[in-house]
Design brief:
Blueprint: H1 2-26, H2 29-33, H3 47-66, E1 69-74, E2 77-82, H4 85-94, H5 121-131, H6 137-140, H7 144-162, E3 167-169, H8 170-187, H9 200-225, H10 228-235, H11 243-263, H12 269-279, E4 282-285, E5 290-293, H13 305-336, H14 338-351, H15 359-363, H16 366-378, E6 384-388, E7 393-395, E8 398-400, E9 405-409, H17 410-414, H18 433-437, H19 457-474, E10 475-479, E11 502-507
Parallel strand pairs: 2-9
Antiparallel strand pairs: 1-2, 3-11, 4-5, 6-9, 7-8, 10-11
């Protein structure tokens, strides 16, 4: 018995010793490249600091201490934080072909693998050509009526709450608007999820979002800490999206597609995706990453049902919480700065002739656009964007070996005093045409940059603007005594208020 125990103990000691030596070698990566950064925790790297401080505080600390290029470790995996605007332009635009893909360390399942965000090389080119088409102005202006329907639900829900109180948390209201507008814009499904809490489609979308965010982050951490976990997840065919959600949403989209094939004439994003797919005349060879014209064969190379389902689902995953948080943070900024709120109201009253907002009406509100951009500067929804190094590359004297992961710390870039003097101050005038022209374009990248930026950003900004205009027309917002100022931020990889966001709401006494 003693010999068995001794053998086990010796085996454990040998395993831990080998693991330590492997990790020590892995953690010497940046020393060899002469890139500075914090001392990583054994096995876990920077992860304990994420839990302690959150990405926002940590990124500010790292960039201020080590400069615009910082080496950190996710477990044993090296990650380079790049906050230098010129380097970002090289990576995302000038030398894009060397940094075309995102670094994905874990197979998240066949559905997410077919999304624009997580696909690679030729498949990404193919998907991007089809999906990005539907977010152009000629399509977006056709869904403004659906956004108006969803803002009407939001206003109705606020009115019901105002019968009892005028201080309340706007996070839940805006989350409901976000899912309502996504359902209506994507499927033509007009729902008021704040009132109808039992709606099956909304429930599945929320479940998919919650499971998807946790199902991506936690396994990724496990694989970074213990590389063997990657093979284990693969062996068990890991899927970040629960089976019941996949089946329900696949069935839903398939039914909607069949209905559109037979009926036609729908003005929603799903119909536009199908139309774009039929019209596209591109074949993409995902093996050699080439494209060629094929006008007479276009019908054979449409998006598959699986690809459409996958990207519809990802549209919800990417837009649900982020759209809501942007609306909430915009209202917070306007509540805190009443002079800016008055200016937005004045612009609305001077430029809109009726309550029936149109796409052109919204696009012509230049000061509102400045307010939204300044909100996204201070409160960017996604805190980091990443790229994978496709081949050994040197930028500004720094070598990036093939396979290295690069991430852009958006929050820290936006709050860098070299990019934005007095960065804590809310000042929409930073985004006047004159001031924008004086800045490096890569100093403000809330939606990423280059060909691989966020394909849905035009929709997201349109939805936020529609909601804000509709609300400012009817209500005056001020900070609630229940609200922390500044708001406490959740320690997640996307930005949201930790405990909701409370505002005081008063009806405006005069019509515009």
């Amino acid at each position: 018995m003693e010999s068995i125990i001794s053998t086990v103990l010796i085996g454990i000691i040998i395993f831990l010793t080998l693991a330590y030596l492997y990790m020590k070698k892995a953690h010497s990566f940046f020393q060899r490249l002469d890139i500075s950064g914090p001392q990583p925790a054994p096995f876990f790297g920077i992860f304990p600091e994420y839990k302690k401080k959150g990405i926002t505080e940590l990124d500010l600390e790292l960039i201020n201490k080590y400069g615009n290029v910082v080496g950190i470790y996710h477990g044993h995996k090296p990650v380079v934080l790049v906050a230098d605007p010129e380097m970002i332009q090289d990576i995302c635009i000038t030398k894009f072909n060397k940094f075309k893909n995102r670094k994905v360390n874990l197979d998240l399942g066949p559905l997410l693998r077919k999304t624009v965000a997580l696909s690679d090389n030729g498949q990404w080119t193919f998907l991007r050509e089809h999906i990005s088409e539907v977010f152009k102005p000629n399509y977006l202006e056709q869904i403004t009526g659906k956004l108006l329907q969803s803002t009407e639900h939001l206003i109705h829900n606020i009115e019901e709450k105002l019968t009892a109180e005028n201080d309340f948390d706007f996070q839940e209201l805006c989350l409901a608007f976000s899912v309502d507008s996504l359902c209506n814009s994507l499927f033509g499904y007009n729902v008021n999820s704040y009132k109808d809490r039992e709606d099956k489609t909304v429930d599945m979308i929320k479940k998919g979002w919650m499971a998807g965010t946790a199902g991506i982050a936690r396994p990724a951490v496990a694989c970074a800490v213990c590389p063997a976990m990657t093979k284990i997840f693969s062996a068990f065919s890991y899927n970040a999206i629960p089976t019941d959600v996949r089946k329900y949403l696949t069935n839903l989209v398939t039914k909607k597609m069949k209905k559109r094939h037979t009926e036609g004439g729908r003005t929603d994003l799903l119909s536009f995706i199908m139309t774009s797919s039929r019209r596209r005349s591109i074949i993409v060879d995902s093996q050699n990453n080439t494209t060629k014209s094929a006008e007479n064969m276009a019908s054979d190379y449409r998006l598959s049902e699986t690809e459409i389902v996958a990207n519809c689902l990802f549209f919800f995953l990417a837009g649900y919480d982020t759209t809501a948080s942007t609306i909430v943070f915009t209202l917070y900024c306007l509540a805190k700065h009443p002079e800016c709120q008055d200016k937005v109201l004045s612009e609305i009253s001077n430029n809109l002739s009726s309550e029936n907002l149109s796409y052109d009406d919204i696009e012509n509100l230049q000061y509102l656009d400045m307010v939204l951009n300044e909100t996204l500067r201070i409160f960017p929804t996604y805190l980091r964007y990443g790229r994978a190094v496709g081949e050994d590359t040197v930028i500004k004297g720094i070598k990036f070996p093939k396979g290295t992961e690069i991430q852009f710390p958006i929050y820290a870039i936006h709050r860098n005093k070299d990019n934005f003097p007095n960065p804590e101050k809310f000042d929409p005038n930073r985004f006047s045409k004159e001031n924008v022209s004086k800045r490096h374009p890569m100093s403000f990248i809330p939606f990423g940059a280059g060909p691989r930026d966020c394909f849905g950003q035009s929709y997201a900004k349109l939805a936020v603007k529609f909601s804000v205009v509709s609300l400012i027309q009817k209500y005056k917002f001020s900070l609630s005594s229940k609200q922390n100022d500044p708001p406490t931020l959740a320690k997640t990889f996307y930005l949201r208020p930790e405990n909701g966001l409370w505002l005081t709401v008063d009806r405006r006494t005069a019509d515009l």
